[in-house]
Amino acid sequence: MSQAEIKQWAENQENLDIYQVNAFIFGTGQYKFYPIGLWKLTACIGLQIFGIIILTDQVAEENGFMCPDAQVCQGYNGSGGGESGQLAWMAFFFVSFVSITCAEQLRGLGDLGMYSWGSNQPEFVSKIWVCIGLYTNVMVLLLCWLCSVIIVFASKSLLDMVLNAVAVLFMITIDDEIVTFSDYDNVLATMASYSSKNAASRALDKCAEKMLNLQVLWSKPWLCSVVMLPLTIAAPLFTIICYGPAEFSADCVAAA
């Protein structure tokens, strides 16, 4: 838990997403970098949280999952036929890939950069931004998993299945992709600078400390495995059992 570790991450351009970069910038009081940092954070949260929620709701509504006569175990909005069995197996494999990808990223999240420090964040870090980053990443991974599975169920062809689900998975990496060379340079340039936190920042840090206790989940591998098991196994099994022609009124979809 030292600036030396952050310096190494910045030099290697690794382990720091936009939330952690801003945790350092805000924690050390680098006011000139606040505007661009907040703008990037706004874009990330808007796309990763609200964007995924809106997309999930839209896909579910447009494909009949919100219809009164929709069944829990229902598939794509197609007419069945000989290709249904082939698509069912491809859906199974694709949901398996999505589930494993999201589960492994969740499994490794608590060991990434400042998140690995849990509630024991150093004084020169804004704990509230580390906390926001950790919780946002957990939510994004779960929402992207849910949205991808719904998209697979709604796909009428293998091409739709691949393109749409992979596009959703890209949303997971936005907070990493938006960190540029200049962000790493800003971190390196301000390593020796530090200004004391005001009362509001200290109060937020106190709240963040309690919320960051969630990181203890990653310190117990067996607990992670128990939590991840439904994600990696239940979703693919549900897919192969339930994938098939839709069982709801076409009028409901048309009205949506």
Layout of secondary structure:
Blueprint: H1 3-12, H2 18-27, H3 34-62, H4 83-109, H5 127-154, H6 158-170, H7 174-177, H8 181-189, H9 199-211, H10 221-242, H11 250-255
Give a written overview of the molecule:
With 256 residues, this protein is mostly helical. 67% of the residues lie in helices and 0% in strands. The chain is built from eleven helices and no strands. Helix 1 runs antiparallel to helix 8 (181-189) and helix 5 runs antiparallel to helix 6 (158-170). The protein is elongated. The relative contact order is 0.21. Residues 77-81 have low confidence and may be disordered.
Features:
mainly alpha
Concise description?
This protein has 11 helices and no strands. It is mainly α.
Main beta sheet: none
The number of distinct helices, counting runs of at least 4 residues, comes to 11
Give the helix/strand class: mainly alpha
Order of helices and strands: HHHHHHHHHHH
Number of strands: 0
Strand content: under 5%
* Helix content class: 55-70%
Q: What integer is the average pLDDT?
A: 81
Rg: 21 Å
